[in-house]
Amino acid sequence: HLAIATGLEAGSAAAETLAHDMPHDAADNYHRRLVTDGVYRELHGARNFRPVFDTRLGFLIGAPLSVLQGLFPLRGKVKSDRDSTRRKFLSHPPTGMDRHEFVYRANVTYDEHARSHVVIKRPALCRECETRSGTPCLWFCPGRVYEKQPDTGGGIINVSHIQCLHDKACLVKCPFDNIDWQNPAGGEGPRYMGM
């Protein structure tokens, strides 16, 4: 519900900013709306929810603290998703819907000859990723954008940008932060209306 509330407030702030021709006040207007509507208060109260449950005694500590609704004054630290990516969870591909069906249902449109909007920054680093993390990009991408190149001795990843679903899991889960994702030119990508 907070995602919808922040979206509504962003739209209202943008409309008010455009109506009164004051583009320099757009960010302040949006922030003011979040504070006055109570969205900020609710987010602030839940700020320690995830850090507490990430501890070893997470449930024992987290359950009582969740009753206090954010009154705990200390702020916990949260590991990034890329730091939480573990090899053991990636030993087998997930089962379920075929990845090509994901791409088909997303109605993805790309110019195959256009420059790729998904680039591996340092291809040599993929070899180290394979030994340390098990090349998680082969499994976390629902569109199967990343595939091993056959007969290259391992570690070389082929990027097929025309299958990208724009979920940006690669930016979040790559353990070496080795993927550069840009918006594709010409508004290409999934057509969500038919999903």
List the helices and strands and how they pair.
Blueprint: H1 2-19, H2 26-37, H3 39-45, H4 49-53, H5 58-67, H6 81-84, H7 99-105, E1 118-120, H8 125-133, H9 137-140, E2 146-148, E3 157-159, H10 169-173, E4 179-181
Antiparallel strand pairs: 1-4, 2-3
Key phrases:
globular; 10 helices; mainly alpha; about 5% strand; about 200 residues; 2 domains; two-stranded antiparallel ribbon; single chain; Alpha-Beta Plaits
Tell me what the structure shows.
With 195 residues, the chain is mainly α. The chain folds into two domains: 2-67, no CATH class; 83-194, 2-Layer Sandwich (Alpha-Beta Plaits), CATH 3.30.70.20. The protein is 42% helix and 6% strand. The protein has helices spanning 2-19, 26-37, 39-45, 49-53, 58-67, 81-84, 99-105, 125-133, 137-140, 169-173; strands at 118-120, 146-148, 157-159, 179-181. The strands form two sheets. A two-stranded antiparallel sheet has the order 1-4.
Brief sketch in words of this structure:
This protein has helices at residues 2-19, 26-37, 39-45, 49-53, 58-67, 81-84, 99-105, 125-133, 137-140, 169-173, and strands at 118-120, 146-148, 157-159, 179-181.
Rg: 21 Å
SSE succession: HHHHHHHEHHEEHE
Q: Quick one: overall form?
A: globular
Ends distance = 22 Å
Tally of separate helices: 10
Strand content: 5-15%
Low-confidence blocks of residues: none
Number of strands: 4
Task: Write the CATH fold name of the largest domain.
Answer: Alpha-Beta Plaits
Proportion in helices: 40-55%
How many distinct folded domains? 2
Main beta-sheet annotation: 2 strands, antiparallel
Strand order of the largest sheet: 1-4
> What is the CATH level 1 assignment of the largest domain?
Alpha Beta
Oligomer: single chain
Structural class: mainly alpha
CATH architecture of the largest domain: 2-Layer Sandwich
